[in-house]
Design a protein that fits this description.
Layout lengths: L1 H18 L7 E9 L5 E9 L2 E8 L3 E5 L9 E11 L4 E14 L2 E15 L30 E5 L9 H4 L5 E4 L8 E5 L10 E4 L16 E7 L4 E9 L6 E4 L13 E7 L5 E8 L9 E4 L8 E5 L1 H5 E6 L4 E6 L10 E2 L10
Parallel strand pairs: 3-8, 4-7, 13-18, 14-17
Antiparallel strand pairs: 1-2, 1-10, 2-3, 2-6, 4-8, 5-6, 6-7, 9-10, 9-19, 11-20, 12-13, 12-15, 14-18, 15-16, 16-21, 19-20
Length: 355
């Protein structure tokens, strides 16, 4: 009990220190598209950890900077004896210790807690997870288990608290905007401490209970919404998770009859504001791998109610603003991307879902 109390006190002090970190200047960091040898798209940002510069996986569906062994120089981070364990929906689990390092992203710089990974493995319910498919020396994060691919660190920037929490807060970042690159375009942008003018025009949506009130967890930033197929009247409503680290669409516990809607179907994703009104509506064609719209159904006893794992598709239709002080995310329509059938923002139910 005493040890638990000390851990809780340490977490509170860490959160307070992050909250009171001096605001960083407004700065931009490029979001780069990386394609694995199996064709899967991943997204990454440049960051310096101590004196080591690297490209790290950008993940809005997790929290914390987590670094594989051998990626840093001996003076880049200081390790503690405090154990840290963290896992992902893929089933991969990382074990290690809490550390501390000086981080630099653009003009933002500060000291933040990090997870220094010592070993990797799989949860028992997913024994063939990506971490099981290669050796630790050849393993890369977000690599699908392909040897020698992926990244040596992952930057989780959701708004969940944690022992190793979102490092942007420790760098003095108060809000941030994610503009993900779309296939056929150049780099995207991660805007740290955007100006007031840059935050205008976003429709704000609340985080959904119970996930926003739990400590940690990959569903922390889920918001109320629905995924529907207007042609057949199929509809699943619950919470929606936007996730730059996920490759497709998946509906968990949706009670949808039959197999997933076939490729070429027109689907609509909706998110709702604090009054229950429509805040954002994106239309897309199901089954386009590079557009993040391949659809699966699954049952998950570990989550409460219906969860719509929306992956990267909403980012192709919207610029997304994160506001941890208000515990809300905002969406502002982007111009349609270059790919036909790709996700696009639509104004109302009267708009056609296809392009």
């Amino acid at each position: 009990m005493v040890r638990l109390l000390l851990i809780l006190i340490a977490l509170a002090l860490s959160a307070a220190a992050a909250a009171h970190a001096a605001p960083a200047p407004r700065t931009e960091v490029a979001i780069r598209e990386v394609r694995l040898s199996n064709g899967a798209l991943r997204y990454a940002v440049p960051i310096s950890i101590g004196r080591t510069a690297m490209l790290v996986s950008l993940d809005t569906g997790s929290t914390g900077l987590r670094i594989l062994p051998g990626a840093l120089g001996p003076a880049d981070a200081t390790a503690s004896a405090e154990p840290e364990s963290y896992g992902y929906a893929s089933g991969s689990r990382y074990e290690g210790v809490v550390g501390e390092a000086t981080l630099t992203m653009g003009e933002a710089k500060g000291t933040a807690p990090v997870h220094l990974i010592k070993s990797i493995g799989c949860y028992a319910y997913l024994p063939h997870c990506p971490a099981s498919r290669t050796t630790l020396a050849q393993y890369g994060i977000a690599s699908d288990g392909l040897p020698g691919e992926g990244f040596k660190a992952i930057l989780g920037i959701d708004m969940a608290p944690g022992r190793v929490g979102n490092p942007l807060l420790s760098l003095g970042v108060r809000r941030w905007i994610v503009e993900l690159p779309r296939p056929g375009e150049g780099d995207g942008r991660l805007i740290l401490n955007p100006s007031e003018a840059e935050t205008e025009g976003y429709a704000m949506v609340p985080l959904a209970a119970p996930y926003a009130h739990e400590r940690g967890g990959g569903l922390h930033d889920a918001a109320p919404g629905c995924l529907s197929n207007p042609a057949i009247g199929g509809r699943a409503c619950g919470v929606v998770l936007l996730d730059t680290g996920a490759p497709g669409l998946s509906v968990a516990n949706g009670r949808l009859d039959g197999p997933p809607w076939p490729d070429g179907s027109q689907a609509v994703l909706e998110l709702f504001d604090t009054t229950g009104g429509l805040a954002a509506r994106a239309a897309m064609t199901v089954g386009l791998r590079d557009q993040g719209t391949r659809l699966t159904y699954r049952q998950e006893a570990r989550v409460f109610g219906v969860v719509i794992y929306a992956g990267v598709a909403p980012y192709y239709a919207y610029s997304v603003l994160y506001d941890p002080r208000r515990q809300m995310i905002g969406l502002r329509p982007r111009p349609p991307g270059p790919a036909a059938g790709g996700p696009r923002a639509v104004a109302s139910a009267a708009d056609p879902p296809g392009r």
